[in-house]
């Protein structure tokens, strides 16, 4: 599977095999008229969005990391700058146009505040067609907290929220006791929701068990030692 993906999409990308396969399958099925990616980095996932979308808006603040193979992606419009500024401008433009957003990948700022702000700004879209939003790194505690902080009940276009659409990983890529990866999913529809909505955590128990064995938990538990650590590190 990995060799087949690499041969079709040669730009390296920081996702697990399950995430790569899921992203490819989703985009093959949706074939978005317009897609948005927040957080391009070297362009690994962007090459997949470009392959299956008619047009892609790629928002990123670090263009120096972009792989030179991205130059062949002719249907991509790069928007350089802070997503907090770029997303509202883009959404205003789209809401006032005939463009149909059908897919969004949020994988930019990984702080709790940053994730919340990206979700808040993206969910100002007024959907003309169903929209699938993928939230990368939903298994990371800071990212997950940001994903849960948004009040989905106040957005009538949100019909589904699942934080464990694809389960994340522990100790992935040699990151000792760290929790990363995972896909959260938000589904928007043009028709307004008539029932209440709850945030689903399909693998919530696995997340909690892993968290109490992770470096994230111990950092939070011993936060008061951080100033001492900085002194001895000098």
Annotated CATH homologous superfamily: Vaccinia Virus protein VP39
Structure class: alpha/beta
Query: Given the C-alpha coordinates, what overall shape results?
Result: globular
Low-confidence stretches: none
What is the total tally of β strands? 9
Percent of sequence in beta strands: 15-25%
Mean pLDDT over the full residue set = 92
Q: Which percent range fits the helix content?
A: 25-40%
CATH architectural label: 3-Layer(aba) Sandwich
Strand order of the largest sheet: 3-2-1-4-5-9-6
Largest sheet: 7 strands, mixed
Radius of gyration: 18 Å
**Number of folding domains?**
1
CATH topology-level fold name: Rossmann fold
Number of helices: 9
Order of helices and strands: HHEHEEHEHEHEEEEHHH
Overview of the structural elements:
With 234 residues, this protein is an alpha/beta fold. It has one domain (2-233): Vaccinia Virus protein VP39 (Rossmann fold, 3-Layer(aba) Sandwich). Helices cover 37% and strands 20% of the residues. It has nine helices and nine strands. It has helices at residues 2-8, 17-30, 44-52, 83-95, 112-122, 141-149, 204-211, 215-221, 226-233; strands at residues 34-38, 55-60, 76-80, 101-106, 131-136, 158-166, 169-170, 179-180, 183-188. The strands form two sheets. Strands 3-2-1-4-5-9-6 form a seven-stranded mixed beta sheet, with helices on both faces. A two-stranded antiparallel ribbon has the order 7-8. Helix 4 (83-95) runs parallel beside helix 5 (112-122) and helix 5 runs parallel beside helix 6 (141-149). The longest helix has 14 residues, at 17-30. It is globular.
